[in-house]
Amino acid sequence: MTHTTPSVDLQALMADLKVLTDLESPSTDPAAIQHVMDVVEGWARDLGAETHALGGGTRVFHFGVQPGATERPILVLTHADTVWPRGTLDSMPWRVDGQRLHGPGTYDMKAGIVGLFHALRALQGQWPRGGVTVLLSPDEEIGSPSSRDHIERAAHEARVALVVEPPVADTHALKTGRKGTGSYLLTFTGVASHAGNKPGEGASAITAAAHATLELQALARPDEGTTVSVGLIRGGSAVNVIPAHATLEIDLRVSTLAEADRVDAAVRAWTPRDPRVTVQVAGGLNRPPFEQGAGTLALFEQAREVARELGFDLTHTVVGGGSDGNFTAPIIPTLDGLGAPGDGAHAQHEHVRLDRWPDHVRLLTELLRRV
Ligand SMILES: [Zn+2]
Description:
Blueprint: H1 10-22, H2 30-46, E1 50-53, E2 59-63, E3 74-79, H3 88-91, E4 95-97, E5 100-102, H4 106-122, E6 132-137, H5 148-156, E7 160-163, E8 173-178, E9 180-189, E10 193-194, H6 205-217, E11 227-235, E12 241-242, E13 245-254, H7 257-269, E14 278-287, H8 294-310, E15 315-319, H9 325-328, E16 334-336, E17 342-343, E18 351-353, H10 357-370
Helix pairs in contact: 1-4, 4-10, 8-10
Bound molecules: zinc ion.
């Protein structure tokens, strides 16, 4: 290595993470999310960043980015929201248990934000060519409705994207691909009638929803990474009424855009057997698949080399869950999972591994230097 291994202060990492964790920030609470962003923006300003607040609550921090420069920056994606409602700290408090640091939103992804800023500080103002753009999203956990456009625009202006979502649970595995995710809401409207006296005059919305459930789930191709699951179904008004109303909601995961198109066309073309029942389809693909590309694998090889020098083995895999990396991967090489190791995203046992975290901060620091 041309640089000495960056020193990482675990106590300082923990102190910064405590500050962000104490500021509970569910996706549905913009004011709480802005408080987290204010703290992070303060860290960015201390490092000399140029900061911008964008529409919808997204913030962007530029470190050594020169407008109009020929070399484009590294884009780093972060999010300030968590899946945990306010008050979760009462039942799931900040707690250190051996090498595990527990708390809501720690692993996903406040420790990723903290590790990133320690990595940026370790660069001591020696920004990589083109500089670094950090984007802080307010709504990643609900599919990034307000930040998606900003993320895609930033990707078009950058050369690579690094995502500080956590590595795969309880491993040193980075994420070099993610499934695309979609959802559909199907609303069925039939004809109500007395179930005992005049069943033939009714047209059951529930029967149509049941057929749709079986036939649309059959579109799954697990071998190709396509899963289709009806996760919610509702309908009817009373047990003795042929039901005029039903809804169902579908969760879709795909590994390729071709599969997304195939399933989307089939969902939209589906028609009830009883012509008196109508169906309305809402929804579609939310995040495109993050297909594992050559540029991403080359980034991973750089990361693996750094990890080897730091004394640990890095692996990579494709995962089912989406992230904001799904929006940048179709535009620029994207390496995801560069946050803090641990386990329990969106679960009661959410925690960061204190014995492994400093290594991943060193990894990110060196990667920012070399990419
Ligand atoms: Zn996350």
